[in-house]
Design goal:
This protein is 40% helix and 33% strand. It starts with a helix and ends with a strand. The longest helix is centred in the first third of the chain and has 33 residues. It contains ten helices and eleven strands.
């Protein structure tokens, strides 16, 4: 018997049959199909043994049904693949920000930041994937001690913002995931060594301790995907550019809520309720005004008061008064091309009559 099997290749034939079966199962799995999906259960002759004709009719019908279902599944997979393939396009934006802090009506510092961003949309023709590169980062601050502190902040900021690849949430256009997170961590490790070399001259132990604490906090934030995502989202360019208009034309003008980091009180997040109003529109362009008010129910007012009394009242002397945080935006976006043309933002945080920070931010598309 063994000799007969070897002579006619029966064993090899059985092995080929098993391999063909496994290959077919993998193919069906790639189409999200099972063998049960390929059986026409409405076949009246299915499983019939009444006659040879009935069996042949059923066999032919089942073969045709199988081919049709596989073809439909292949078409569906191909359609989804094509939907995910979008034309890659480049957008360039110029952003200019002026920040002023006043104590008792007297300006104590001001900062001006100018940046150009290149945004590659649909990277590698994949829908919803963006690459953001910061091309220019010009900073000026007064007085001089603030300039040095801001310069250090910008070093860290450039690691986070200079070269980011991300995808967006398919429902709201906000950042969903940072795809090159490991590359950003590697860039931070290099920059961290450079910063320690640059500021290694610091002799004051308290100052150097604060410097090291700053690096450690930055490292924790950069190493965490969620923290880094929140940090990017708090940057005005990322907050303005990555929005619902990128992925849908539905509910673009509905009220919404958004949280912001306090500019004055460390560790405080303020939730704002926004309303939107269309000022003017054309077939391709929409001119929109957004106004906000503080959500008092979620405001950590007692904590803000304590920080004010400890940090600011000794120099201002005046007691804590009313707290407010507001943001107003005028923006124009292209509803046909799904990109923002320009945005003017005014942001004010204040303890009335005592302390305020005012930010004026302008964004415009230049390519």
């Amino acid at each position: 018997m063994k000799k007969l099997e070897e002579e006619y290749g029966y064993k090899e034939w059985e092995e080929d049959k098993i391999l063909r079966k496994e290959k077919e199962q993998k193919f069906l799995s790639s189409l999200n199909l099972t063998e049960d999906d390929l059986i026409d259960k409405n076949d009246p002759d299915l499983g019939s043994i009444k006659s040879v004709d009935a069996m042949l009719r059923s066999q032919k019908r089942q073969e045709e049904y199988r081919k049709r279902k596989i073809k439909e599944a292949q078409g569906s997979i191909e359609k989804k693949s094509n939907e995910n393939k979008m034309i890659e396009r480049n957008l360039k934006y110029r952003c200019e920000q002026i920040s002023v802090t006043r104590l008792n009506g007297v300006m104590i510092n001001n900062t001006q930041i100018k940046r150009d961003f290149l945004v590659v949309e649909n990277v590698d023709n994949t829908n919803g994937v963006f690459a953001v590169k910061m091309l220019d980062n010009i900073v000026d601050a007064r007085p001089q001690p603030l300039k040095e502190a801001v310069s250090l902040l910008m070093e860290v900021d450039s690691v986070m913002c200079s070269n980011v690849i991300l995808n967006v949430d398919e429902h709201n256009g906000k950042i969903n995931k940072i795809l090159n997170h490991n590359d950003i961590i590697n860039e931070w490790n290099i920059r961290k060594i450079a910063l320690r070399n640059k500021y290694g001259f610091i002799r004051n132990s308290d100052t150097y301790e604060k410097f090291e604490h700053f690096l450690n906090v930055a490292e924790e934030q950069i190493h965490s995907q969620e923290h880094l995502k929140d940090l990017l989202s708090s940057k005005l360019f990322y907050d303005v550019f990555f929005d619902r208009y990128l992925i849908t034309d539905e509910k673009l003008y509905a009220p919404y809520k958004r949280k912001f980091n306090s500019q004055l009180f460390e560790g405080i997040r303020v939730e704002l309720d926004f309303k939107q109003e269309i000022l003017r529109e054309s077939p391709d362009m929409v001119f929109l005004r957004k106004t906000s008010s503080v959500n008092k129910d979620n405001l950590q007012l007692s904590r803000i008061r304590k920080i004010y009394e400890k940090k600011f009242q000794p120099s201002i002397q005046y007691k804590f008064s009313d707290y407010n945080y507001s943001m107003a935006e005028l923006c124009v976006f292209n509803s046909k091309q799904n990109w923002i043309e320009r945005s003017n933002i005014s942001l004010v945080e204040e303890v009335a009559n005592n302390l305020e920070v005012v930010i004026d931010y302008k964004l415009r598309k230049i390519i």
